[in-house]
Amino acid sequence: MSFSINLGKWNQIFAVPCALVDEHIKLAGSAQIKVLLFLLRYAGQDVSIEQIAKSLSMSTVDVKDAMQYWIETNLINDISNAVSLIKNNDSLIKKLDYDKVDNLRSLNKRQRPDPSFVAQRITDSEDIKFLMQEAQIILSRPISNADSAALVMFHDNDGLPVDVILMLLQYAVSIGKAHMSYIDKVARSWGKEEIDTVEKAENKIRLLESKRQAWSIVEKTFGMERRSPTTKESEMADKWINSWKISTDLIKEAYDRCVDNKGKYILNYIDSIIKRWHEEGIKTLQQANEEKKKSHFSPSYNINEYYDSMDIFA
């Protein structure tokens, strides 16, 4: 078996300093590496920090923070020197190969850094140092090495600014979920949704709290023991309470009809009843009972077998 290299794309290459691999491949985060590669790729051409941020799906603050890392390691003399390589030129953005940018982004594996890298980040960055100090205060406990690594990962890999991470920690504490597994899950989600400003974080927390309260109402209405909802339960509760404004009386009636006819709690079955009421403009328990008498409605309509086959539980 023989191999050959397709030189089509290899005919256009640029140089990367050996120091990037020899000294910084372990220490530098994905954001720092992406920004440096971008600078090297377009060295000598004009592009703005805003355009770099847009092309790499990063905030301008994080781009500057990444540059600061390379300044502190002496690969870049100063920000003004770096910016001199990348000033405004609208024509350049039109020439960007976004497929290549996406390929770089795909290399951004979400992996917790080792303790030596975390220690170096704390030493090099006042922001990271501040994050560690405030995290201990918010969580009301000393943070472990694993916690520190996770916090750095939220910043460097997920792209969350320090103030957004602190807001996430405060929210987790406020709902009694100050364990890192929950915080990590939310941080990953926020990174994908580009929750990279305080305003975006406030709006997201408002939505999360609204969903949480909706499930709390449904949970009490169903008479369930307190527990965390599944993703589907959370979405259904949010829809019934916040979007459709269904009364608790109707939600309880739908639950009772489900249990009476099916002998168990089936989320999709309950939703089908509530959805029909919503579409028909039934807003009170009295209307639901009157409609039942008129139509001799029974939840054993033809989709019973469908729900039995799905066997969907909470």
What does this 3D model show about the protein?
The structure is a single chain. The protein is mainly alpha-helical and 314 residues long. The protein has three domains: 12-101, Orthogonal Bundle (Arc Repressor Mutant, subunit A), CATH 1.10.10; 117-196, Arc Repressor Mutant, subunit A, CATH 1.10.10; 207-310. Helices cover 67% and strands 0% of the residues. The chain is built from 19 helices and no strands. It has helices at residues 7-10, 18-22, 30-41, 49-55, 60-72, 79-84, 90-95, 98-106, 115-124, 126-139, 145-156, 162-174, 180-192, 198-222, 231-243, 248-262, 267-280, 285-295, 304-310. It is elongated, with a radius of gyration of 27 Å. 29% of the residues are buried. The model is unreliable at 78-108 and 299-303 (pLDDT under 50).
